[in-house]
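Hi F.,

I've been meaning to write this up properly since the lab meeting, where we talked about keeping a consistent format for the predictions we share between groups. The idea is simple: the sequence comes first, exactly as it goes in, then the structure tokens exactly as they come out, then a line or two of notes. No screenshots and no reformatting. I'm using this chain as the first example so we have something concrete to point to.
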Amino acid sequence: MLTDGDIVLRPIKLRDQRPWREVNRRNRDWLRPWEATIPPPTPSGPVAHRPTYRQMVRHLRSEANAGRMLPFVIEYQGRLVGQLTVAGITWGSMCSGHIGYWVDEAVAGRGVMPTSVALVVDHCFRAVGLHRIEVCIRPENGPSRRVVEKLGFREEGVRPRYLHIDGAWRDHLVFALTAEEVPDGLLSRWKRAASQRASQDAPRTTPRNAHNTPGNPA
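Output, unedited:
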């Protein structure tokens, strides 16, 4: 379990089905343009179907047990509000993985997703032992791009027709971080940056003198 204030990331469970379905139902229009879809079958290929919730969780657990995935749900103030998965974990000379995520529109803009990504990146670098984390995002997905931009991920380029999203093969931008780039941790860097932004955005007031002086009315 990974925590920071009101934000908790924990492994997804079968008993999360009801809240997971409820938040997905409410966010259908918000999530649909960015969700993975099943491409049309080829003449010689198998016919794939969208998995049920139980099938999805069992697959995520199987991949996690094999060391290839870290599947989390995100809770905010005790309520399930999203999902974050580290997938494609590769060892040997690469030691990398990639992150995918979604969040309830009702809590977007509150720092839930940047904090969640930062927590998981620190866990991957410090506890798991990975060296590099990627996030691949459609160029049109402004909210997801703002997450990695706030966290200081490097933009590395475009992967043309990389994933089947919303019914078609879509280009994706690649963002990445390596462990050397965040020696003090990504969460602490994100909090420092957020604190600096807050102080810069705070309204400035002219201090009032304790005593009136000519030309400087109180």
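Notes:
The first helix runs from residue 17 to 26.
The beta strands are 2-4, 7-11, 70-76, 79-90, 96-103, 132-137, 154-165, 168-178.

If this format works for you, I'll send the rest the same way.

G.
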